[in-house]
Amino acid sequence: MEKSYTVPAQTQIGHVHLKVANLDRAMQFYCDLLGFSVTTMYGKEAAFISAGGYHHHIGLNTWYSKDGPPPPPRATGLFHTAILYPTRKDLATIVRRLMDAGYPLTGASDHGVSEAIYLNDPDQNGVELYWDRPKEDWPANPDGSLLMYTRPLDLHGLLKELEKA
């Protein structure tokens, strides 16, 4: 095997498939609250959902987890699913929707390259909702390497995006 390999630059992560305890409850969160659309159902045990008609961005299933408890916080597994919004205004729109619904956020951060909010789905799976700043605006160290950080996100400033025409 060749020792040096670099994944092609166009490679993307296509979807995440989550084990959930209650499919209806998970769909209320991902579809009714976050706005994903159902592309197909597998009986009452699984659903594929997407944005924009893709075959699926998120799979939800109860095949091994029906009525199961959430994983313990200090266990291995998925840290969070990150959902990339196309614009800052789109992120502001979903933040306003979550706030209007009284849905609790677990964090809000400015990472220099992106702005993100964090929450948990009903099964305590971590969810990050974010938008990327244009690449030319990403902060850099003096040596030219990427400078990412975690600073508090100005939610008030983010929500002002909704006032722009």
Which outline best applies?
A: globular
The CATH H-level homologous superfamily of the largest domain: 2,3-Dihydroxybiphenyl 1,2-Dioxygenase, domain 1
Specify the number of helices: 3
Secondary structural class: alpha+beta
Specify the CATH architecture of the largest domain: Roll
Count structural domains: 2
Record the strand order, biggest sheet: 5-8-7-6-9
Low-confidence blocks of residues: none
CATH level 3 topology of the largest domain: 2,3-Dihydroxybiphenyl 1,2-Dioxygenase, domain 1
How would you describe what is shown here?
The protein has 165 residues and is α+β, with helices and mostly antiparallel strands. The protein has 2 domains: 14-66, 2,3-Dihydroxybiphenyl 1,2-Dioxygenase, domain 1; 79-165, Roll (2,3-Dihydroxybiphenyl 1,2-Dioxygenase, domain 1). The protein is 18% helix and 27% strand. β6 (107-110) and β7 (114-120) form a beta hairpin. The chain is globular, with a radius of gyration of 18 Å.
